[in-house]
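Summary for the funding panel

The consortium committed to producing paired sequence-structure records for every protein in the target list. Below we show the first two records in order, beginning with the earlier of the two.
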Amino acid sequence: MSFDATAAAKRIAGAASAAMRHRLAGGVAPAALPSSRMAVDVRGASLGILASLATIAALFWAQGFVIPLLLGVVVAYTLYPLVAWLVMARIPRIAAAMIVMLSILGTLASGAYALRGQMQSIIESLPEAAAKVSGQIARIRVNPVGNLQTVQGAATVVEKAAKQASGGPAAPHRTATHVIVDEPTFRLDNFLWKSSLGSLGALGQGATVIVLAFFLLIGGDTFRRNVVRLTGPPFSKEKVALLVLNDINGTIQKYLFVLLTTNVLVALLTWLAFRLLGLQNAGAWAAAAGVLHIVPYLGPAVTAAAVGVAAFVQFDSIAMALLIAGVSLVIAGFIGTLVTTWMTGRIAKLNPAVVFIALMFWGWMWGIPGMLLSVPIVVIAKVLSQHVKQLAPLGELLGTS
């Protein structure tokens, strides 16, 4: 018994001394060390990644259906205030929707008819523009085959001179090797056929968007009430859903109003600048600049390239072409960077970097329609994140603060 008590006392004393030494060394007892490992739900993260990839694949596969649907919703949001104003004036909703749609289509058709002469002039000048641009490219193009032959001839002369200087026999005369470079051929008929098919597809989608927007305008608040009803019977859920839909409606309408205002401003400033510079068909080019400015970044670049070619054909001067193209880019950059970004930030408080990433992603997914829809999609995500607690981290990512 005495042996066991002595051994136990020695063990207790040894443990106490070890703990004392550990404390004196500035450490913490091993039992008190917190675990540095963070629990990770590998299964949940894997399922989330797979679900995201499946959603992206489904959106890409169903773009022929999803793009006209979203564009129709955006057009309906844009025209809804006009229809609501006519309904308040005791005009039946279906008649109000028809009046608004026909007025918009008639205005666009009238504008195109008024500019038909300038558009026809631009189309007729395309062969001359192609000939001048190709001739200019041919004059400044570096011929790789000719340069290769020149280098080979110089190498032969140097080799011959070196042989003669060393007293050896002269190098035999070598004939220049002809290098054949196969250049890809451009088939105009294939290009026109593909362009025609693309134009027909765009017209079909445009008609689908117009019809869908018309039916949404006729429905009015019915669709929104049905969505609220699907959230469940509790009044709190219905109230939150109605608040979210109203917020999305107001924010998108404000953004679309900003987009319309800035595009009209781009068209007016472009027309004034082109008139002062003496560019022919300034009205048609200004209308094209206003329409293409809807597509961020890509639209102004296409406009600058086109007006640069037109200026080169008219003035036969590269400096004048660069000047007019630069003026177009400056106007689009000023309006897009300062006015649009500032007003969009005031309306939706979006991070500009997030907007640019959204443009890249949706442009990669759906092309030009994706770039048109990218900002409304981000706006909807931002509004949802403000009202749904689970999406609060997404709101922090999309916001400016």
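The next record, for a separate protein in the list, is shown here:
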Amino acid sequence: MVRAADIPSCNNPDTDICASKNVFKDAFTTGAGETSNRAGWTAEVQLPTRYVTLITKYWNGSDLRWYFVGSLFSSFNDTAGLTKPCLDSSGNPIFCEAPSNDGGSTVVFGLRDGVPEYAEQRPVRSQGGFVNLGFPLSRIFGADPAGRNAGWQFYLHYAYDEAKARDIRRIGNTRQKNDLAAATLCYRMNSLVTFVLEESLYRTRAVGDPTGTKPFPTYRGVPARQWHDFRSEFGPIFNF
């Protein structure tokens, strides 16, 4: 929702573009409103065996930011067919913008064949999944169930998250694919304390601009198609 007071003015002095600076205010006297739909579905399989437990999951949907997937994107302004009526500080054409009522997004205003409109907000579509393998090391190596070596477990994990490239390119040349690979070793000392060591690799890749005009995001001071983070974590887990 955009309040009437927040409807933007057109700062283009060319009257062939904007008949007046209040062209949008006159068209949307009571403000503006747009909707964006959120939907998703998921499937999960768990297969326990004596020597390994497999857990795998797949998800697909749109506007899944609040579920921490979809590269954390929510929606984008679909400006296809709209003319940029406003000017930036250098005199270059841009879309006129206004903040939403809650400040959660920016609504874009433009002209379609000279008629004032605001861009539809479309959800970013995404898909992804993960696979996790759990190995009961103590059972595999025949440790004494009552001994000190009865609590060893090992996990391998890989997760992948992808926002659709055709949607991300509408936002800009920014992140699109993310994946995580992790290996986790657990030792359960007793019923209250478990020690965990984890080595993991986080990786993010940008969508890439087919025209080559939009630069890649900056990583370590230079434009980069992908960036990553190696992490080593160790600590106790307390069960109460």
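Regarding this second record: The helical segments are 23-27, 137-140, 165-171. The chain has one domain: 4-238.
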